[in-house]
Amino acid sequence: MQIRTIQEKDFDQVLEIENSVWTPYNSPVYDRVLTKDDLRKRIGDRAHILVADDNGIIAGCLPYNPMYPFPQGQHVCTFGLAIHPDFQGKGIGRQLIEGLFETAKQNHFSQIAMHVTGGNKTAISLYQKMGFQLECQLTNHLCINGIYHDALIFNKSI
Question: Domain N-acetyltransferase spans what residues (predicted)?
Fold first, then answer.
């Protein structure tokens, strides 16, 4: 498994993963289908995307970008993580996050923070195993498909 930066040839596979994993029923963020133009714009807006490449098959992706748009917060990045269902539970998320630690340092980030839905026990367990600390719990902060969920904010210094 190779962790590397996304290439144009990966767009179709990354979109398949993003659009199958993130839906309005499990995420407050995605209420539409992502397109190649969305990926290009994301990359153009200072985002980076890592992919897990298994001999030409993209097993997962990890987009990351500065958490804040202002200079005083440019040392903090945030990320998303999406793993193809056929590769879930095989350590791909861990490998992508390890890749993030390396590339985030190269891009002058010293903190990594992210939001996760309180009910996403798999992600929470992974983040804690990777050294992230829970810094904030916002009760009933997210409404997904008519159901309220806690929003958790995790952080790690790198």
Answer: 1-158
